[in-house]
Amino acid sequence: MWDYSNLPLSYLNGKICVPFTIIWFLMGFIKDKYMATVIKNMNDLKKQVNVACSKAVENACNRLLGSLQQIIDEEFYDV
User: Fold this and answer.
1) Which residue in 17, 44, 56, 63 is deepest, having the highest Cβ count within 10 Å?
2) In the chain, how many H helices and how many E strands?
3) Is 20 exposed, middle or buried (0-12, 13-18, 19+ CB in 10 A)?
4) How many alpha carbons fall within 13 Å on the CB side of residue 9?
5) CB 53 within 8 A of CB 45
6) Are the beta carbons of 65 and 73 closer than 8 angstroms?
7) Predicted TM-score of the model (pTM)
8) Which whole number is the average pLDDT over 18-40?
9) Which tens digits make up the pLDDT trace of 49-60?
10) Per-residue burial over 54-63, b = 16 or more CB atoms within 10 Å of its CB, e = otherwise
11) Backbone torsions φ then ψ of 13, nearest 5 degrees
């Protein structure tokens, strides 16, 4: 159990201390603001990774289709 009875501005037999209450509030507020920024940045990163992966898969498929078309043309048509 916390005991703030020897600190100034303590109440309820030392269970509540105003300076520490303010400190904990500020630390929680900063953490919430920081985490919101981290989560927003992670969502932006996820979108960018999805776009990059989609483009990479599309390019790979296009190269594969081009190669297959070239093989088909060489095997079945006189090019």
Assistant:
1) 17
2) 1, 2
3) middle
4) 6
5) no
6) no
7) 0.43
8) 83
9) 888 899 999 989
10) eeeeeeeeee
11) 60, 40
Structure tokens at 70: 């070239």
Written as six digits, the tokens of 37 are 């920024």
Residue 8 neighbours by CB under 8 Å, 6+ apart: 19
Angstrom distance (rounded) from CA 3 to CA 21: 13
Half-sphere exposure of 47 (CA within 13 A, CB side): 5
Would you tell me how many other CB atoms lie within 10 Å of the CB of residue 16?
13
d(CA 1, CA 38): 33
Q: How far apart are CA 23 and CA 46, in angstroms?
A: 34
